[in-house]
Specification:
The complex is a heteropentamer, with two copies of chain A (about 260 residues), one copy of chain B (about 325 residues), one copy of chain C (about 375 residues) and one copy of chain D (about 350 residues). Chain B is mainly alpha-helical and about 325 residues long. In chain B, about 70% of the residues lie in helices and about 0% in strands. Chain B is built from eleven helices and two strands, in the order H-H-H-H-H-H-H-H-E-E-H-H-H. In chain B, helix 2 (about 80-115) runs antiparallel to helix 7 (about 220-250), helix 2 packs across helix 10 (about 290-325) and helix 9 runs antiparallel to helix 10 (about 290-325). Chain D contains twelve helices and 14 strands. The chains are: A alpha/beta (about 260), B mainly alpha (about 325), C mainly alpha (about 375), D alpha/beta (about 350). The complex binds adenosine-5'-triphosphate (2 copies) and magnesium ion (2 copies).
Chain lengths: ~260, ~325, ~375, ~350, ~260
């Protein structure tokens, strides 16, 4: 149910601007990998290349390979739509569909892909997904109300519920908890813990504690200066990154007193 | 927890499934539609050129059909260009008056509905303005004759009496009301709904984030509009105004019914005998009586209107892009996969 | 503040007012100034012109009010609040200004048209009867042939234009790259198309059909094609604007769920923009349904009922209104009454479209509560 | 259908005066597509009604919005079975018609009316004007109703007030016929050639269509304009002084005008009945500003079926009965029998 | 230059929905107050009543008083525009004006009041504000580029720069750092430390560590369930809240292992 990811010497461009340079890494199946690094270093950019979401930005393109269980995501004939169905994503800003009810938002991935789903299955799926995102109790009695009426944090959890409802093989999360309060964050972290037995999870976070709590391995990205490309500085077991980093920059960054 | 409904992992390679075919078909359909517009427009342009060419290139002084086309100077027109000149001016002038009167009001109404009217009645007000859009142009023509023409007569006398020193308000003041002012007012009313409803939709879509950013800085409501609403809506406002302008330039029957035209260059707006004729109305008025060559001349003027539309659009576009560094940003939301 | 530490404030202090209530005009000042200017202007106008004209009075009242409130607010409050008040005044005047023609047209059409409008007028085909003894021809008013013609011609034009227009807008917004030459050409040409005089569109359609079906090319369908030329650009333009307003985040959310682009467009983008698109379509319909010149040219004229859009002339309500006004029978008053009747019917028809569209729009509109 | 009660057969069976009869065939079916002159519009509507009372199976679509030029153009392109036009085919149009009609297009006068000089002066219900005064007023040389020339024409002074002349803004047969008269009879006061568009510029209120002129004259004060007499509604029209007599419009006076002043001006196609007015032949019994309008059709139709329909309809129009229907319902003047007989003869040759 | 705030028994409604109930608190001048609590408990809602920003939401209204140095913000004749000039605000989601350059964004508030600011003053102000927001080095060479072209974190710092450029008396921050990486977060926290000597600062945060690091006093809000109003549960010195809370709910919340 989950897949390994292998990235070989990947460059990501926005038009002519090289945003991320020469990233190579291997991500094991059924593991949680955290990306950390300062703002603008290309964490989001790189993350999006893992399900080809960067392609929706005009001019964005990559050089290099991303292999999922050995299949090159950028190989000829590979359909980005199919890639994205297997590699789910949760964004930094919550983006529920404004025309849909909470329930329909959760079912969107299933329904939009024209899968016929019986009412009871649908109800089950909605409940499970919302429970997984720790939103069930807050919205159980207003499932038919629009999703846009929720608070920011609630909306983000709704988006997580929506992403896990389609049961992807890999789950990418771009700072999924930055708009969430500790209780929801805790729930999501627990969820990640649970999901990791089945999924390969990659999470971008600014929260060092979070990275150290949830991830098995951590990748630290950095940027030399504005206009310079972001680079993968160090990639190792989370414990090693936070206790015995090999690179000075990593140590500087993780030893900050912030969380 | 999810494996009950989880599908078996599909292959990444594109299988030639129906859905992906649907994607291609959809792209094909929309591209075909886009191209069909090119085809239609090319068709119209070719039609105009083929039909108009004989008159554009003819010698108007000697051609038996063209030399009798009326000229206020009582001599045959020397060429197509002499003939089309005053008409072009008339089209631009009347459309200008209409835009001058209509566009600010239209944007004002849109703002009123989107940002000033109490939320509860804003929807109803929007509907009221849409009602204006529901009035067909022929009705505006009839209304213009019956209501606007007499209504503007006292105003015309007033303007002439106190502002007659301005060339626009020179006499002799019309006694029948068939002035370019009346035509302009009716045109302005006709473009109102089209400009209003589009700008209104766009104003309403201004991200709340941006509005709050301005308000939190201590902006008054107007400053908030100036800081966040108007910049956001700029390109949309220009499009809406261009649509209105297109309507004003191309409007035929209402103008033909209301204005008492002459083939002259004039800026007077209060007279019966000195209103510059518009191209569209001139075609409508003279087409029925014209023979083939004269029709060719009329179609040639239609071609010129086409060219003017081109010019106006180029101008408006360059104005927008000159003043709006971020315009392309908003425009380029579309992307490809 | 004076006791601040060595940590100087990061920015220079502007002379912001410290109080929260400084310089406030009382709440009643706006209505008061308005009433005041109305009275003053009325008096001055009467003295100057010895007559009273409602339009002039309203106009100058608005001006005097705006100047008055602007100056007053500048003095008592400040420039910014004055601007705010003046703009509000302007915006509200704009709205009232627009209400006048609306009410006036509607009242005119209703008052003039109500005289002939009844069920008979709608459900009978207008015609004549002839008395062989007196040689007298009597005209029986009726608009059924025109109602049917309007529905057929406008309906076909809508069926053709709306898909083409929306698909083109989709192409422009969702598919074409910003610098794609086809995209640039189309955005530009669509704007140009809005300036085609309607009569030229009629000529174009008729010439086209003459080429295809021979000289007797008059048909409702060719009129529909003429109307398409007028309608498509409006649909494209308004749809394009509405599609651009759909936040990119929604598209991304959908793509990330592995939804193909076509489904995303159909079920997310169009759905979110539906209410605006519908408004645009109704505007476009209202724009073309009142056209007369292209109908004459392409569909010629008839008084008879014709249900076949592909052959023989057809009448529409706009044409009926126009011909009855422009080419009255010897009983001019009766003809004009019919013209207004047709006009009223036309307005009612468009209002019905509008209502339907509103309902559709409300059903589809994004909801937040 | 009982042919004996129909007006066509009534006209042919009842020997009133020397009536010109037509044979209406009630069994015909089909559609006649026609259009052109708006002056004929009301007459055409009446003819259609009267004809349909006998021939139920024929639909006649006469498009009055096309105008004379549109009618001719559509006729020449083959779109119309016949055209209504206020002026006959021009020479080049006749040439063009030869490719369509074998021998060529035939102009048959079917409608006669007069151009009325309409006015709206408060308190004035009767107005007499000489041709010269009419020319001067419309040429903006006389600008006040109290002008001595007007006083002289009427014998008494009219209330003073500025004159607003109202003309057609669109090209029209009415303008053509009116300026034909002015150019032929008032060369000094009317220095313009006859044309279908109004030549005078300056303080003229130009209005679209006869109805535009009528409406504007009606709603203005001190206004004067010209319109096809059948379309003036309740407005007053001036009597024109001809040979010392003030002649108000009347159908008889116009029929008389046609009888004395119309001279044949054939376009060369056998059977063509184009006419021209010789204004020097006007008398004190003739209304001096006539307006004649034609039916234009092919000498040989592409389809015999269509020819039969069209000829049958036009022959009804060109009968005494047809002319009476138009006179009764459209206020037109009946064409003299002599020309109707020629018309029937021409129609009989059409295939 | 800073003011005290006193809130008396404040209820906040969205239409008929009571979102926040019965809040009373006193905020000392030149202090930092943190609001914490689970998502949806009304922190943002309450915060916005402190500069009347809730009024821009149709139907939102309050009962009760908010006094700033004794002046009631909701008193008769009080102009919300003047209130907002003195009580600045930074939002959860960065919202730079998309059509403006970075420089114009910073100057936007200042230009409203003082159109004719000299070029050198303007440049100084821009530099100081951007430095204050720790953004200067990243954008100094592209001040004339649009603000929307920055990364999320950069945009947020731009918004902070914009807010402090008008030198308000009170600064409200609604999760200002939730989109920021640790380095920027650190800079902002330092900035808050600096600003507090002059301003009264109120900050909403989900980050317990942040609250304990930057704030003098902390207010814990909670909500009994969906549809119930949010309430102020405990308001005390930050130290007391995090070490010896009086209420069980507070203890449950702050003792979570997250941060
Ligand atoms: N759509 C885009 N077009 C051009 N450049 C972009 C685009 N999006 C991001 N960039 C640039 O790419 C670089 C990496 O940005 P990215 O958003 O990936 O950073 P990040 O590490 O996710 O930052 P943050 O922590 O703030 O989210 C930045 O320099 C940014 O300015
Ligand atoms: N515009 C609004 N209209 C109606 N209800 C609203 C609105 N905004 C928020 N609410 C409701 O008010 C309550 C408080 O919301 P608020 O956004 O203040 O919570 P919060 O504590 O800031 O949450 P978060 O930590 O997620 O930002 C919630 O129940 C929310 O659903
Ligand atoms: Mg990012
Ligand atoms: Mg909040």
């Amino acid at each position: 149910m989950s897949k390994s990811i292998e990235v070989n010497n990947l460059n990501v461009y926005y038009g002519n601007f090289l945003a991320v340079e020469g990233v190579s890494m291997e991500i094991a199946p059924r593991s949680v990998t955290a990306f950390i690094g300062p703002s603008g270093c290309g964490k989001s950019t790189f993350l999006r290349t893992l399900n080809r979401m960067h392609e929706v930005i005009p001019g964005a393109h990559v050089e290099g390979d991303v292999l999922m269980d050995g299949d090159n995501l950028y190989g000829p004939g590979v359909d980005p739509v199919l890639v994205r169905r297997q590699v789910g994503m949760v964004f930094q800003r919550p983006n529920p569909f404004p025309t849909m009810s909470i329930k329909d938002n959760v079912l969107a991935g299933v329904r939009l892909n024209n899968k016929r789903i019986s009412k009871s299955d649908a109800d089950d799926l909605v409940e499970k997904s919302l429970k997984g995102a720790n939103l069930w109790n807050e919205v159980r009695d207003r499932l038919d109300k629009p999703g846009a009426g929720l608070s920011g944090g609630q909306q983000q959890r709704l988006c997580i519920a929506r992403a896990i409802a389609v049961s992807p093989q890999v789950l990418l999360m771009d700072e999924p908890c930055s708009a969430l309060d500790p209780i929801s964050t805790y729930a999501i972290e627990e969820l990640i813990e649970e999901l990791k037995s089945d999924y390969t999870i990659v999470i971008v976070t600014h929260n060092m504690q979070q990275a150290s709590r949830v991830s098995d391995r951590t990748a630290f990205f950095n940027i030399a200066g504005t206009g310079k490309p972001g680079k993968l500085i160090e990639y190792n077991d989370t414990k090693a990154i936070f206790t015995t980093p090999n690179v000075q920059a990593t140590e500087d960054y993780v030893s900050g007193r912030f969380g | 927890m999810t494996d009950t409904i989880a599908p078996s992992p599909p292959a990444l390679k594109r299988p030639s499934t129906k859905r992906r075919a649907g994607d291609t078909a959809f792209l094909g359909l929309s591209t075909a539609s886009a191209v069909s517009i090119l085809v239609i427009l090319a068709g119209v342009a070719i039609f105009l050129i083929i039909q108009g060419w004989p008159a554009i290139t003819a010698n108007w002084a000697t051609n038996p059909s063209l030399s009798v086309i009326q000229n206020p100077a009582q001599v045959p027109w020397g060429s197509f260009w002499e003939y089309v000149g005053p008409l072009l001016w008339g089209s631009i002038w009347s459309a200008f008056i209409a835009m001058l009167l209509g566009a600010p009001v239209a944007i004002g109404i849109a703002l009123f509905i989107s940002h000033y009217a109490p939320r509860r009645i804003a929807g109803a007000l929007g509907y009221v303005v849409d009602l204006l859009a529901a009035v067909p142009s022929i009705v505006f023509g009839l209304w213009g004759i019956m209501v606007i023409r007499p209504l503007l007569l006292p105003l015309s006398h007033f303007l002439n009496e106190y502002f007659g020193w301005l060339p626009f308000f020179e006499g002799p003041v019309s006694s029948t009301g068939s002035t370019i002012l009346a035509g302009g007012v009716v045109l302005a009313v006709m473009i109102l709904p089209i400009v209003t409803s589009i700008t209104r939709e766009i104003f309403l879509q201004t991200p709340r984030l941006h509005e709050e950013a301005a308000l939190a800085l201590g902006a008054t409501r107007w400053e908030m509009i100036r800081l966040s609403v108007l910049p956001y809506a700029r390109s949309g406002m220009v499009s809406a105004t261009l649509l209105g302008l297109g309507r004003a330039l191309g409007e035929t029957m209402a103008i033909a019914l209301i204005i008492s035209p002459s083939l002259i260059y004039s800026v007077k707006v209060l007279t019966d005998g000195y209103n510059s004729q518009t191209i569209a109305a001139n075609i409508a008025l003279n087409f029925p009586i014209s023979d083939e060559m004269q029709r060719s001349a009329l179609i040639g003027t239609g071609l010129m209107l086409f060219v003017v539309s081109f010019g106006v659009n180029i101008l408006a576009r360059s104005l927008v892009s000159a003043s709006g560094p971020k315009k392309e940003k908003r425009r380029s939301k579309g992307k490809s996969a | 503040m004076s006791a601040s530490t060595t940590n100087a404030p990061p920015v220079p202090r502007s002379s912001a007012p410290i109080t929260l209530t400084s310089g406030q005009l009382p709440r009643w000042i706006e209505p008061a100034v308005l009433a005041g200017s109305a009275i003053v202007v009325a008096a001055v106008l009467f003295v100057l012109t010895q007559s009273f004209n409602a339009g002039v009075w309203l106009f100058f009242t608005a001006i005097v009010y705006l100047v008055g409130i602007g100056l007053g607010s500048t003095v008592v409050e400040n420039r910014r609040k004055a601007t705010d008040r003046v703009v509000r005044g302007l915006v509200i005047s704009a709205f009232i200004l627009a209400l006048i023609p609306l009410v006036s047209t509607l009242v005119t059409v209703i008052v003039q048209g109500a005289a002939v409008l009844n069920w008979n007028f709608i459900w009978t085909v207008g015609g004549t009867s002839f008395n062989p003894d007196t040689l007298e021809v009597t005209y029986t008013p009726g608009a059924f042939q025109a109602v049917v013609g309007t529905l057929i011609i406008t309906g076909i034009a809508t069926l053709i234009s709306v898909p083409i227009g929306i698909l083109t807008a989709i192409y422009l917004v969702e598919y074409a790259q910003p610098n794609n030459p086809l995209r640039r050409a189309i955005t530009f040409l669509v704007d140009v198309m809005t300036g085609i005089p309607s009569i030229v569109a009629g000529l174009f359609a008729f010439s086209l059909f003459s080429l295809i079906v021979g000289p007797k090319a008059f048909s409702g369908f060719s009129a529909s094609i003429a109307l398409c030329v007028l309608m498509i650009p409006i649909v494209v333009r308004s749809t394009e604007e509405m599609l651009r307003l759909v936040p990119n985040e929604l598209r991304e959310a959908s793509f990330a769920l592995g939804v193909p682009r076509s489904t995303t467009i159909l079920k997310i983008v169009l759905r979110t923009a539906a209410s605006g698109i519908v408004t645009g379509v109704v505007l476009a319909i209202a724009r073309i349904v009142g056209e007369t010149a292209p109908i004459f040219i392409a569909a010629s004229f008839t008084d008879a009922l014709n249900l076949n859009p592909f052959q023989d002339p057809m009448q529409t309500l706009a044409v009926m209104a126009y011909t009855n006004y422009s080419f009255p029978t010897t009983d001019i008053a009766a003809s004009q009454a019919q013209a207004w009747g047709a006009a009223l019917l036309l307005v009612i028809l468009v209002v019905i479209f509008n209502l339907i569209a509103r309902i559709v729009a409300t059903v589809f509109a994004p909801k937040t509560r | 259908s009982s042919g004996s009660t129909t007006p066509g057969s009534t006209a042919s069976s009842t020997p009133t005066t020397a009536a010109v009869a037509s044979t209406v065939d009630p069994s015909l079916t089909g559609t006649i597509t026609a259009g052109g002159s708006s002056a004929q519009a009301n007459a055409q509507a009446a003819w259609t009604a009267a004809y349909n009372a006998q021939v139920k199976g024929v639909t006649i679509n006469y498009d009055k919005s096309q105008g004379s030029g549109g009618g001719v153009t559509n006729f020449l392109s083959g779109a119309y079975d016949f055209a209504g036009s206020d002026s006959p085919l021009k020479a080049d149009q006749t040439d063009q018609s030869k490719s369509l009609c074998t021998a060529g297009g035939l102009n048959i006068p079917i409608y006669l009316d007069g151009v009325a000089i309409i006015y709206n002066i408060s308190g004035v219900t009767s107005l007499k004007l000489s041709g010269a005064t009419v020319a001067k007023i419309f040429n903006l040389q006389i600008t006040d109703w109290s002008d001595p020339a007007i006083t002289a024409d009427n014998g008494t002074a009219l209330p003073a007030g500025p004159i607003t002349t109202v003309a057609r803004s669109d090209g029209s047969g009415t303008t053509q016929n009116f300026t034909n008269y002015l150019a032929a009879t008032q060369p000094t006061d009317w220095p313009y050639p006859a044309a279908n568009s109004w030549p005078v510029t300056g303080n003229v209120s130009a209005q679209k269509g006869g109805s535009g002129v009528v409406n504007t004259v009606q709603s203005g004060t001190g206004t004067i304009g010209y319109a096809d007499h059948s379309a003036i509604g309740t407005l007053n029209s001036a009597a024109i002084i001809q040979d010392g007599t003030a002649i108000p419009f009347s159908p008889e006076a116009v029929t008389q005008t046609f009888a004395v002043a119309a001279v044949p001006a054939s376009n060369g196609v056998p059977g063509d009945l184009s006419q021209k007015f010789d204004y020097s032949k006007l008398t004190a019994e003739t209304y001096p500003i006539p307006l004649v309008s034609y039916g234009i059709l092919c000498s040989t139709f592409k389809s015999a079926e269509q020819a039969k329909l069209t000829v049958n309809y036009l022959s009804f129009i060109s009968s005494t009965a047809g002319q009476s229907v138009a006179a009764k319902n459209a206020g037109s003047a009946p064409l003299p029998d002599s020309i109707l007989e020629q018309a029937q003869a021409t129609l009989a040759t059409i295939k």
